[in-house]
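Sequence in, structure out. Go.
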Amino acid sequence: MKRVILFLVTNLAVMLVLSVTASLLGVNRYLTANGLNFGMLLVFCGLMGFGGSFISLFMSKTIAKWSTGARVIEQPQNSTELWLLQTVQNLAARAQLPMPEVAVYDGPPNAFATGASKSNSLVAVSTGLLQGMTKDEVEAVLAHEVAHIANGDMVTLTLIQGVVNTFVMFFARIVGYFVDSFLRRNNEENSGPGIGYMVTVFVCEIIFGILASIIVMYFSRQREYRADAGAASLMGSNAPMINALRRLGGMQSDGLPQNLQAAGISGRESWMGLFSSHPPLESRIAALQSRR
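Output:
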């Protein structure tokens, strides 16, 4: 329940900030007496689409800590936490990255990386993963997360999400305008959008949003392959990452909040592969085995 409330409050706050910004800039007045102002509409949709994505990116570390209850390791409390810090420090040095924050959270086997930039990032690992894997396997998982940071995957996915958000909103409103104009073609008294516009925009945003998620999930899957390969490079061998993925295949993983699903080492696989944030573990293992 805490996660749901946090998700709703955060999204409402983001939408409120963006709505006020759009109003102050005047770009929310894209519907005029002469029809749609396409330029202003595109600016409005870009502000809402990219604005929401980038605000979420800049808040990602804080939200991740709140939603998972992750505790950042500042002073190691035991040998495991000391080992975690030293391992991530070594991996970050190999990847030529600033040291990210390292955190531990209670939950099923999983790990994730998040943050607004390479110099402002977080690597978190669950107690379930630490308890269920060998040190070599945990190190491979940590290398996978460090590779995500080195590849700039958080920013890349944010940009892709911003683009698809923009065009989902843009085309939904264009379709809504023309449907509404058609329905009210014989009505000369009323001006401005009617119920047809609002209903059509709502329906189109759902349909276009589902189609757009296919694009976002495709890029999400590709970045998992790259992070696996990056982990193998950092480890100097494919074997540790392959072993870690095989171990994950026999564990009850996941357990991350919805907003962190794509960031985890293991994510939910949809009954339709097009909507999965992660490739099947078998495909990831095969890709590593074919890597030279």
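Check: The first strand starts at residue 31 and ends at 32. Strands lie at 31-32, 35-36, 71-72, 101-105, 111-117, 120-126.
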